[in-house]
Amino acid sequence: MTQDGIQIGKLATLLGTSTKTLRFYERVGLLDAPGRSASAYRLYDDAAVSKARLVVDLRRLGLSIHELQDLLGTGQGANLRSHLLALMDEKLRDMYLQLSLLQGRVDDLSVRHLALLSTPRERSAGCICGALLRPCNCV
Q: DSSP class of residue 32?
């Protein structure tokens, strides 16, 4: 970091993200506008680097931009932790529900696949009744 701060390209590399992403976070208010060098380059001081790291890390948890805006608007400390825990609880519940629904779909498709595989060879090649789980009227 220079005496005035780190430029956006170096910050993006440090955080494993892109300059475009950092500019977007600034535009939507997740990051404050950084200082500028004499040649108008963005310069991030230690506090801005910490905030950018927090935002990038929280996005990697799967939080949406809106969720981040709400979360970071709550402040720091225990309040931040309790809000993040609540968000994570909600996300976990949603993910478990999605997994359950997806497992049901996998189970259904597996049964249909097995039924199609079990179609007797003497049936016509166009018979897909097994996959549709309906009685076969094919010749």
A: P
